[in-house]
Task: inverse folding
């Protein structure tokens, strides 16, 4: 299980999977309120990988990685929705590489040539589901080939539609998250079943 330190984290997104092998989940936002401890800023429905969560994710397994991860840059084909969180506008030359044989594996690459001639597998980053999205910092430091790639928070196809491994929710809630996150709060995301979250999240009951 990937676990990042949250010693300096003051904003935490918690994704509670309904159970192993299930794609339904609940997403909640938590913020550290000084001596008052952690306070919940809201909850919403979410969906995860079609095969549920995994403690040991593999490329193409349809599972969402369980663990605690730093949040990465926001991105999308549409303009920045506001807020302080870093955001990149994508176009037809933006790709995320999920070819384990490539040195670009699990990296965002801008490329103006034919992507099929460079990689065996890749994600285009200017698709409708990524109109508003954010990188989840899974398998990035270091990148381990085959451990999974292109894990994002992005817009879902619908409440009953699982992803290929990402965390998804409504467009409104993705935008809310992008506006809510602040660089000084060093936001992170914890993903797992209720049992796993008891180990990952200090305040989880």
Result:
């Amino acid at each position: 299980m990937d676990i990042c330190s949250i010693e300096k984290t003051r904003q935490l997104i918690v994704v509670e999977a309904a159970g192993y092998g299930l794609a339904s989940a609940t997403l909640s936002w938590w913020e550290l309120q000084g001596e008052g401890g952690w306070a919940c800023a809201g909850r919403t429905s979410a969906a995860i990988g079609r095969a549920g969560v995994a403690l040991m994710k593999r490329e193409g397994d349809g599972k969402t990685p369980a663990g605690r991860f730093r949040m990465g840059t926001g991105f999308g084909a549409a303009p920045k929705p506001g807020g302080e969180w870093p955001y990149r506008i994508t176009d037809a030359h933006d790709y995320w590489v999920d070819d384990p044989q490539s040195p670009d594996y699990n990296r965002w690459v801008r490329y103006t040539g034919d992507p099929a001639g460079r990689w065996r597998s890749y994600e285009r980053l200017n698709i409708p589901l990524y109109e508003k999205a954010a990188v989840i910092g899974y398998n990035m430091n270091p990148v381990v080939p085959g451990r999974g790639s292109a894990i994002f928070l992005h817009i879902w196809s619908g409440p009953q539609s699982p992803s290929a491994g990402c965390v998804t929710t409504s467009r409104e809630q993705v935008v809310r998250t992008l506006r809510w996150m602040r660089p000084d709060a060093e936001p992170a995301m914890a993903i797992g079943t209720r049992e796993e979250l008891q180990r990952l999240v200090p305040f989880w009951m």
Observations:
- The chain has one domain: 2-200.
- The radius of gyration is 16 Å.
- Residues 171-180 form the longest helix (10 residues).
- The chain is about 10% helix and 35% strand.
